[in-house]
Amino acid sequence: DPLIDTVLILAHNPGITDVFYSLAGVQIDNVPTAGVGCIQFDTDTFKNIMESTTELEYFYYPKMDQ
Fold it and tell me: Dihedrals φ, ψ of 34, to 5°?
């Protein structure tokens, strides 16, 4: 659907750490509890997402502030 431009993925480990590596191409050793990240895809359709250019816009978890 060309009207959809945002997808939210909710998961926990070990799967979510693998998702960050597979989709964003960045090595994150572990996505901790309550970790959140935003991956930007440069594509017009969701079906071409794996061939698109990606950028990790942010990665955050609450204990980063301690």
Answer: 65, 15
